[in-house]
Amino acid sequence: MADVAFRGVEKTFGNLTVIHGVNIDIADGELVVFVGPSGCGKSTLLRMLAGLEESTGGNITIGDDVVTGLPPKDRDIAMVFQNYALYPHMTVAENIGFPLRMQGMSSGERRERVTEAAGLLGLETYLERYPRELSGGQRQRVAVGRAIVRKPRAFLFDEPLSNLDAALRVQMRKEVKLLHRRLGATMIFVTHDQVEAMTLADRIVVLRDGRVEQTGTPEDIYKRPANSFVASFIGSPPINLVEGAVHTGPTGPYLVPRANPEIAIQLPSGLDYAPAQEITLGVRPEHLTLRNKTGELGLEGKVVFCENSGQESAVTLDLGGLQLIASLWGDDPPTIGHRTGLEIQTANMLLFDAAGQRIEPKATM
Amino acid sequence: MTHGRRRANLMVADVLKAGGIVVLGCAVLFPIYWMGVIALTPTGFSRSLSSVFPSDVTLENFVTLFTERPMLQWLWNSIVVATLSSFLSLAFGTSCGYALSRLKFRGAGLVLILVLATQMMPATSIVVPLYILFRDFGLLDTMQGMVLGHISLVAPLAIWMAKGFFDSIPADLEGAARIDGCTRLSAYWYVALPLAMPGLAAIFIYGFVTSWHDFLFAKTLINSQSLWTAATGISSFRGEYFTLHELQMAAALTFALPVVVVFLVMQRRIVSGALSGSVR
Question: Among residues A233, A261, A295, which one ends one of the domains?
C-alpha cells in the first residue's frame, strides 16, 4: 500500500485544457472519492494515475516513486472499470489469475491466490464459467477479484457501480466499503453519484471543469461546502439557493430574494454584510420546517409538488415565485395546493458571496 | 371473412412463399448440379445429353485430369499462392488495421481513404502497370510475383476489415490488460488478437477465395505451365476449335472443393458473440 499524490497535473488535448494543475494528496490506506458532473475530468485523472492517459504537465507519485511517464504495468496499481472490462475468452479463474500469469507466477500458487480472492467475493462456484454466463453483479465481482488478487499499491475504481441496478449498487457499495476495511488499501473511487461519494469516502474530492473545487470529509463537504457549486452538487434533494440582497432591520439582517422582493428571510447575525450586499443563501431541505402558523417574518408558501419516497417527502413550496424544497421525515405529506407556514433554521444557513464562495462566520473573541 | 377462408389464404401464401424459395434455390444450385452432371459424363458426350439426369455416369474425366494433365500441380500452385498471399495479407492487414484503430495520429483518415481508393481501381487497370513493374524487378513468371500481386488485391480490404474488427473490441480490455502487467504488444497478443479471431478468419477466407478465383493476374503474370494456377489450367481446356467440356467441368468441380474445405474449417472461428460478457 502507498500514498498517492498529484502535483500540478495538467492534461490538454490540442488547444483544449481539460485538467488544470490539479493538486491532490491521498494518504496510505485512505478511500478517496473523486466526484463531479460528467466531463469534470475525474475519470481522466484516474486514467492518468493508471497510465492509460499521459499527463501533459505536473507529476504523479505513488509511494516514493514518480510514476509519470511509466507504462501502466510498472505502476503496481489495479483498476476496476465502469464496463467491467473482463476478458471474454477467459474463464472467471483465468480472468482473476491473469495479472498473476503476467507476473510469471506458477500455476499452483496462482490457483491458490485465485481461490482465496474468489472466496472473499463469493465466486468459488463460478470459477469455470465465462463472463457471458454471469450476471452484472457477478461480473463486477470478478473485476474486483482481478484487482485484489495481486495486492497492488493502490486500487482505482472508475464508476464501477454505475451499470448495476439500484439494489445491487447499494449491496456492492457496502462490499467495497467492507473490502477497504478488510484490506486497509489505498483506494480511489470515481463516481458522479454524490450518494455513493458520501457513503463510501474517507475524503471526497469535488471536481468541476478540470479543477478541484473542494477536498474534505463527507461531513465537511456537506456542512461546510467551499462554494455554491459544491453545495448544490452534494445533497439530495438539492440545497435551496436563494439569490438576493441583504438589508438590516430591527430584528437584524434579512435577505430580500430577487425572485420575490415582497418577502424577507431572516439571516444569521455575526457576519459582515455590506449594505445591500448581493449574496446567495443556501438552505438544505431538512433545515426548512413547515408550520401551521407563519413565522415572525411571515413566510408562507403553497405546496406545488411533492415527492414521497416512503420514509421522506420532498415538498416543493412556492413563495410568490420563489420555490423552495423542504424535507419531511415520517410525516404525512401535505396535499398539493395546501398553504403552509415556513420556518428556516438560521443556525444552519449557508451564505455565499457574489462569486459563489462561502462567507465564513466571524470568529468569536 | 370467415375463419376457414382466412386459414386457406394463409396456406396459399405459405405455399407460394415455399415455392418461391424452391425456385430460387434451384436457379442458384442448378449450374453447380449441371457442372457435376457434365463432369460425370463420358468425354465427348455432354452435347448429346437429353435429360437433366445423366444416363451414363463415369469418373474417367477425373482420372484423366490427374493422370494425363498436371491438375495436381496446378492445384498445388493455387494452394501455395492462395495460402501465402492470404496469410501475408492477413498479417499486413491486421498490423495496419490495429494501428489505424488504436493509434491516434495526424493523417490517419487520409491513409484510410488512400487505402480504400486502391480498392476502387479495377484489377484490369492495374494489371498492366503491375506487369511492367514486375518485369523491371524480375518478378514475372515467378510464384513470388503471383503472391505479391494477390496481396495487392487483398491487402486494402483486409486493412479496412481488420480496422473494423479492432474498433469493435473495447479499448478498455487492452487498458485492463496493460494494468494487469501487459505491454502494448502483449495486450495485443493476449487480448485483442484472440478476440479478433472471427474477423481474422473472415479476412483469411476473403483473401484465400480472392486469390483462388483470380484469373487475370494468374494469366498475365505467369507464362510457364508448371507455374500455372488451377484457374489458368481450367482455361486451357478451351481449344481454338473445340472445348473439352467434360474435362473442364471435372477440373472446375475439383477446383471448387478446396475453397469449400477452407470455408468449412474456418467457419467455426467465425462465431458471433465472441465479445459478450466482456463489457456491460
Answer: A233
